[in-house]
Structures are given as structure tokens and as C-alpha cells.
Amino acid sequence: MATPGERKVVLVTRRTRLEELVAHYHTLAQARFYIEHLGADFSDYVRENAAYAQSLQLTIEVLQGWGRYQIVDRGYLPNFMFAADDIVVALGQDGLVANTMKYLDGQPLVGVNPEPSRWDGVLLPFEAKDLKPVLDDVMQDRRSTKAVTMAEARLSDGQTLRAVNDLFIGPRTHTSALYDIELGDRRESQSSSGVIVSTGLGSTAWLKSVVAGSFGIAQALNPGRPWKYQPEPWDTDKLTFAVREPFPTKTSGAELVFGAVARKQELKIRSRMPDNGVIFSDGMEADYLRFTAGMEATITIAAVAGRLAV
Fold first, then answer.
1. Which domains does the chain have, with CATH numbers?
2. Is pLDDT at 1 greater than 80 in this prediction?
3. Which residues sit opposite 3 in a β-bridge?
4. How far apart are the C-alpha atoms of 240 and 32, rounded to whole Å?
């Protein structure tokens, strides 16, 4: 029977809002001055920071009793190498769970909510006090996991990027995205604000806002048309793409603007942007792929699914 410590636990953390402010303004006093000058409640930042620190301390105490563990800040995830038998714990908001999962290859992921009174935590079913029995269950394969379909962008130069919620393909700045899009036997040259490719988990996030905006405009133009939106399950066998603000011209169309990408199907996008095209995932703009003229991105369902402990 496996015993605690046989598998390493990797704890992924993130800086709090207060820590980010202090890093930017160098001192706590300067951070306080900035927030209070804007008329905001600085004490809320302090309370959030204290709650996170307490949860982190409790989590580390559990891991010290466990044996082998390592702490990794979110900023180092793109270059961190997870072992195949690692158990991964993310202490933070839902976004941290998503940003961690896309770098895993099937390792179980445990989401820990540092402050349940503040964060709803759709992906954070546990608190620090729950961690020891959860880790024991994961070690013994007694804990159920929920499969999460991920998207993957593969560039023609070999670079890849996964997404737990969504991929954005478009301009780095507020300019038009120029590209050719192809799905099956349909192909179109487009000018738009970019393309969103969403997973089932992401269908309740950015994609929903895009669809809601489109329906709102349609209702304004054609009153009385009902709006009904049904998110996809987390383990859905398809991706959904939506083109933002397509602009039809003599050389660009606006017909291939919404649809599904089934498993084993490919959505292909070839960039016509000279120097500002990018692809990023899950809102992490700092971790992006350059997508400039001539490069082709092939978007598919990732071969590996996320495993979220529940």
C-alpha cells in the first residue's frame, strides 16, 4: 500500500493583490497611499492577504507532515517540469487552477480555496483543513476526479499552447486581426477583433459574454427574439469558436464566425498580421505565442484532459 511521501506534492501559489501592489510600489506605505488616494478600502487588501497567508501556513503544515513537497509560484509555471507521479495542489482563485492545469499531463490537481467567504470557487472544492485526507485519498486512488477538456494551439514552427478555458487568437493591441480561417471545407479571409476558442469549462466565461453581446444586438434589431444559452459540460467532446466583431469588406468575409470543432477535427488559422499577432490562453497575456504573418495555428482538442479532484 502506498504511503504519504512516496509521491511529491507540488503546491502552486500566487501573490495576493497586496503583494502585487508592494512589488510595484516598493513599500507598504506607498501601496496604501495609492489605494487610499483612489478612495478604495485598503483594509480589504490587508484582510485578503492575511487570509491567504493563514491558508498557506495551514497548507504547508499539512505538506510538512506529508513528506516530499515543493512550492512553485504561478509565474514559474511555463518553465516548470512536473513529474508524471506528482500530485498538484493550487492554492488561490479559480484562475490559478486553470492556469496550472494547462501545464499538466494528467496529474491530479487539487484546488484549495484560501478564503471561502470571498471566493465562490467553482474549481476550489476544498479548504486547507481538508487537504490531508484529500491527499491520502488521491494517493490511494480513492478520490474521484472530474475530466476537463482542454484546447491546444499548435503553430507551424512547432510551438504549442494549451487552454483550460479559452484561446485568444488576434492582435496584441487594439487593432484589427487579419487572418484566414478554415474548418473542414469552409475557408474565409477575415478582419475582426480576434477569435475566441472555448472549452466546455470556458463556455461559462468569455464565450458566454461574446454570445450574450451578439444576442443583445440581434434582439435590438429584431425585438422579441428569445435568448437561450446552454453552457457545455466540462468534459465535452468539442470546442466552440466565436469571431469577435467580424468586419465584412471586399476582401474579408463574415460567415464563418461561430461553430464547433469536434474531436479529431482541426480549426486552422493563418496569420496575415505583420508584427502584432498573438495567441494566449486563459487570460494570461504574458505567456503568449507570437502569431505573425505566414504562421499557421492548428486548433484541436488536447490529447490530454485535466483531472480535477472533487
1. 9-143 (3.40.50), 151-302 (2.60.200.30)
2. no
3. none
4. 43
